[in-house]
Design goal:
Blueprint lengths: L5 H13 L6 H9 L3 H11 L2 H6 L2 H8 L1 H24 L6 H12 L6 E7 L5 E9 L9 H10 L4 E7 L9 H16 L3 E9 L2 E4 L7
Parallel strand pairs: 3-4
Antiparallel strand pairs: 1-2, 1-3, 4-5
Length: about 220
């Protein structure tokens, strides 16, 4: 067990005495994932940062630390997402953009490939469902307007918020991304499904298409 390692035992003692804030990223990662200090340091070196470790796919993590420890790390990411998304289910999304952007940053900032998310909202702008609408490459994710609108209809959603990430950190959406979003907006308008915004997550930055005048 990783906890038996002297460095891990010392870090665990500090966790008990002073709480999570007493641990640095490596120590928190090794305790949460049941890792040795060397394994935790290796993951941070391999993926670049704690968010990127937690955003990594199970298969990628398993190659480094084994399937069981990789599953624990994936669970940590999922728990963080559940915590952040809970307020979006209880109150209108439009009244809490800080909560929305915080959730999107946690879900997308560390990913090594582009991913498109849809947040489907009811008539009171409360979250019905968050769903992955597309998986892409390091610099592209497809957007299919008809599929986005079709899913909104299936969920009886009145509105949708889109979001995707740029792993390279570029904070400017491409012309193709803007055009695809406008196509979703036009398709939704016919069926009275609003597109409230499309957020671009680039590193720690979250950029709003609407704030940029692109919607």
């Amino acid at each position: 067990m990783a906890r038996s390692h002297p460095e891990t035992a010392e870090a665990f003692a500090r966790l008990l005495a002073a709480g999570p804030a007493a641990l640095d990223d490596r120590e928190a990662l090794q305790i949460a994932g049941g890792l040795t200090p060397a394994q935790a340091a290796g993951l941070l070196a391999r993926f670049g940062s704690l968010p990127e470790v937690l955003a990594a796919a199970h298969a990628s993590l398993a190659r480094e630390v084994g399937a069981a420890r990789a599953a624990r790390l994936c669970l940590a990411q999922d728990l963080a997402g559940r915590l952040l998304i809970a307020p979006l289910r209880r109150r209108p999304v439009l009244g809490g953009w800080d909560a929305v952007t915080g959730y999107l940053r946690a879900m997308l900032a560390g990913r090594s490939r582009e991913q498109l998310l849809g947040l489907f909202l009811d008539k009171r702008n409360r979250l019905i469902l968050q769903e992955v609408l597309g998986e892409g490459t390091i610099d592209h994710v497809p957007v299919y307007p008809r599929e986005v609108v079709r899913r909104a209809l299936e969920l009886d959603a009145a509105a949708v918020v889109l979001a995707h990430n740029h792993p390279g950190g570029l904070e400017t959406p491409s012309a193709a991304e803007v055009d695809a979003t406008r196509q979703v907006q036009e398709a939704g308008r016919v069926l009275r499904i609003a597109v409230h915004d499309h957020f671009l997550v680039a590193g720690e930055s979250v950029v709003s298409y609407r704030a940029l005048g692109l919607l």
